[in-house]
Structures are given as C-alpha cells and as structure tokens.
Design a protein that fits this description.
The protein has 321 residues and is of the alpha/beta class. The protein is 42% helix and 16% strand. Helix 5 packs antiparallel against helix 7 and helix 9 packs antiparallel against helix 10. The longest helix is centred in the C-terminal third of the chain and has 20 residues.
Length: 321
C-alpha cells in the first residue's frame, strides 16, 4: 500500500425504498475503510425516499465519507446507475443495490487487494443471499478458470459482486438502458469479452455482501413474470457472443434451463417456444443435449446450469459450435 490510501466510490441507485434504504446506507457508512465517496442516484422516487436519503446524508457526510445525491427522473435501474457513473472521479468504482448490505470490512479487503495488485482491472467476490424468511445461501464461483462460462450460467458478475476500473466500465458502454431486467447479466458478458481481456482476480474468503431477496426486486418474484424483458436481455447477450460460438452454446444451454423454469411456473407454451427457438439457433448435434438439460431442470428444479457445464463446455482444445 502507498501512504495515500485509495478512495473507493460506491454508487447506489434507489427508487421507492424509504423503508429499507437506510439499512443499506448504514452498512456502507460503517465500513472500516476511509476515504469513501458515496453517490446516491434517486430514480424518480414518489414515496418519502428523497427526504429520507437527504436527511441521512446531512447526518453522515464528512471529510472522508463524502456523500452526493443525484437525480435521474426517467425510471430504470440502468439509467440510475449510469447517472451515478457520470459523477465518479475515482480510479475504481463499485455499485450496490439499495436493499443489500455489506459487512464492515468489505471495502477494506477490496482496497487492500487493489493496492497490493495495481494491475487488476476487475476484482470479484462471492455473496450471500437472504430470503424473506431469513434463510441464507452462498453464491460462490465454481469455475474461476472460465469466468465467462461461470457468469453465463450463474450471473457471477451481478451488480454487487465486483469492482472495476471506472474508465473500463465507461469504455464498455456501461449499462444498456434499453434493458429493464438482467442488465447486469448482459453487462458482465460485455466486460468479459472486451479486447484486450481484462486482468481479473477473485477475492477469496467468506462472502461480505448480503443480497436481500424480496418480491419487489427488479427481477421480480418469478421467471415468467418478466419473460419479455428477459428475452430482450438474452438477445443482447447473444449479440455480445456472436463471434464466440463456444460461449454462445453455453448461453443456449442456459436458455434451456430458463425454459424449464418457465414450464415449472405453469407457462407451458412460453417454455415450448423458448426451447424450440433455442434448438433452431443451435447445431443439430447439440439439440439432444439441450433437451436433456431442459428435462433435468424441469424434473429436479435445479442442476440445469451444472449439467450445461458438463455437457456443453468444450474439453481442452475441442471446438464447439
């Protein structure tokens, strides 16, 4: 570490979260690391959120914990994140959702690694999810040697799971504002397909981020309730992978899993349509594998992404298309 400690910027988009946003902001304020800059991007809230956030900022702003509030009146999490990104002046930036929490030493661990390894472009980590009943589960990286495959199957670079150089994020085009869901999923693919490839490292250790799951999250309480928006995101990801047949095949395996999830929620016609379209977009030699993946996920309600990796991931230098 150099004598001058690096400053980390955290961007938090928020819309109508007056009842929970202070819990998130407190978890950032309570970090053991300083200096921190916190940018809160209000996304057209029409509840007391603006007043709650303004009062909290007045009470907690300080010389080494700088708080700025910006406004993005057009609804959309991507728009709010991009609005916050325009204000960032630090070398690295991280984004955080307005209902999640970070452990007290999260940013210290991040900045220590970045300070000791200044070559890193993107640093990612595991997180815990907590449902409405208080049950938690851990989302870990199972295939660190191929982070792109890992991300396609498990959304490893979800919003709160990494920090990246600010300039790289801008060069990548930041969030696609035409997408209303899975925008972080699509952005992760773009980041991991940049040329030259990013210098990426995984931050090991127990998860220091808790993602709180609720029915009013952006992705919704079920797969099929946002099927149209999800299809747009998957089409965008397909374009991102147009020159990468190996990972496009992995994406089609993921689509077979998603189609099974639609069916398990009762959307049989939607499931059949997605599976048929996916098979038509895949070489015939792989269609039986897609059907096996779909059936496995439909019967057991889990494991489809794991099976996709087993059946469709290229072995060694074997070419898959």
């Amino acid at each position: 570490m150099t004598e001058k400690k690096m400053k980390m910027t955290v961007v938090v988009p928020v819309r109508n979260r007056a009842h929970v946003v202070c819990r998130t902001l407190d978890s950032i304020k309570n970090q053991s690391w300083r200096p921190i800059e916190l940018i809160i991007a209000d996304n057209g809230s029409d509840d007391p959120t603006p007043d709650v956030v303004s009062k909290w900022a007045d009470e907690n702003n300080s010389e080494d914990f700088i708080i700025r509030i910006v406004n993005e009146p057009v609804c959309g999490a991507s728009r709010a994140r991009n609005r916050g990104l325009r204000e960032v002046t630090t070398e690295h930036v991280m984004f955080f959702d307005s209902d999640d929490e970070m452990e007290f030493d999260h940013i210290e661990r991040i900045c220590t690694i970045l300070g000791n390894h200044p070559e890193i472009d993107l640093l990612h980590w595991s997180l815990s999810t907590r449902d409405a009943d208080g049950w938690t589960s851990v989302c870990q990286s199972a295939n660190p040697d191929d982070l792109l495959t890992e991300h396609i199957l498990h959304s490893t670079l979800s919003t709160a799971r990494y920090t990246v150089r600010t300039e790289i994020l801008r060069q990548a085009g930041a969030w696609d504002e035409s997408l209303s869901t899975w925008d972080d999923y699509e952005l992760g693919v773009r980041l991991l397909t940049m040329e030259p490839p990013l210098r990426v490292r995984h931050l090991s250790g127990a998860p220091r981020v808790i993602a709180n799951l609720s029915e009013d999250t952006q992705t919704g309480s079920s797969y099929s309730c946002r099927a149209e928006a999800q299809t747009l995101a998957l089409e965008a990801i397909g374009k991102d992978l147009a020159e990468d047949p190996c990972h496009r095949l992995i994406l089609n395996g993921k689509k077979a899993v998603i189609a099974a999830n639609y069916r398990n929620e009762g959307s049989h016609d939607l499931s059949a349509t997605i599976l048929l379209q996916t098979k038509e977009d895949t070489q015939k030699k792989h269609n039986l594998k897609l059907q096996i993946i779909h059936t496995f996920q439909r019967l057991f309600h889990k494991g489809g992404s794991w099976l996709t990796h087993q059946l469709l991931q290229p072995k060694g230098n074997q070419e898959n298309g």
